[in-house]
Amino acid sequence: MADIPDDDLEKTRTALAPTLDAMASILPWVGKTQPVRYPPELNKRWQAACQTLADGWAQHGRSDPATIRPLVFALLAVAIETGEADCLRFGETLASVADHLEHKAPGNRLSAALSATTEALLDEGGLENPHFGERLRHFTGRLEAALRPSSKPGERSDTLDRLFVQDADERLARMHEALEVLPIDVYALELEISELIQHAEQIEMWGIYHLARQVQNYALQLSDASEAVQDQAAQDIARQLALIEDALRTVDY
């Protein structure tokens, strides 16, 4: 390796000096263990209770909701021991969820909220997770919102409506593409409209459901039809897709 001139070495040291000084100032903090906020034994029991609840919900939550109650109250007992307001409110909200499940099967909103909550409870660190309080407050609010009656029909929510609109927009784009090729891609058209009908029915979006059914009826005319019939059906489908697009724009989420 060629020798580096002394002047170049000195210039390099001078240029790196601020960076080296900054690194030296933080080195004492690197690797320093943060003080624990809770007794390790308490955190261990919290994590065990969270794991048991998550497993119970995944295995029995929808088929036998009553099995969730003792798991929730086991977690609540540990929450009380922490003495933290966020833990107490979260535990009380879970208890309300358990009460609800004993009288009524979980709907889509509550199921989604409880699944996300039990998964988040398994975050590394348990009580000592640096985002513990923030996460508890978020999921407490989400569970409370899921317990409140929705102003929308059935099990619809703003989240479900938004997801439905996004999915429907993608399907409509693929249906337009199916109409633009020659010959018309009947298979893709029927597949996309069938999925759209099914999803609209599931969340009781009846206006879009009936518009989509009409598209399906037109699509059935495309199989083994003459060129003239196909052209007319394609025009009818395009007009109907435009009506669906207009209807999607009116969905409030």
Characterization of the model:
The chain is mainly α. The chain is built from ten helices and no strands. Helix 4 (85-103) packs parallel to helix 6. Helices cover 72% and strands 0% of the residues. The chain has helices spanning 6-26, 40-60, 68-82, 85-103, 108-120, 132-147, 158-180, 186-202, 206-220, 227-249.
What is the subunit arrangement here? Answer: single chain
Poorly predicted runs are: none
- The string of secondary-structure elements, in order, is HHHHHHHHHH
* β-sheet strand percentage: under 5%
What's this model, at a glance?
The protein is an all-alpha fold and 253 residues long. The protein has helices spanning 6-26, 40-60, 68-82, 85-103, 108-120, 132-147, 158-180, 186-202, 206-220, 227-249. The N and C termini lie far apart (66 Å).
Lay out the secondary structure:
Layout: H1 6-26, H2 40-60, H3 68-82, H4 85-103, H5 108-120, H6 132-147, H7 158-180, H8 186-202, H9 206-220, H10 227-249
Helix pairs in contact: 2-3, 2-5, 3-4, 4-6, 5-6, 7-8, 7-10, 8-9, 9-10
List keywords for this structure.
single chain, 10 helices, mainly alpha, 253 residues
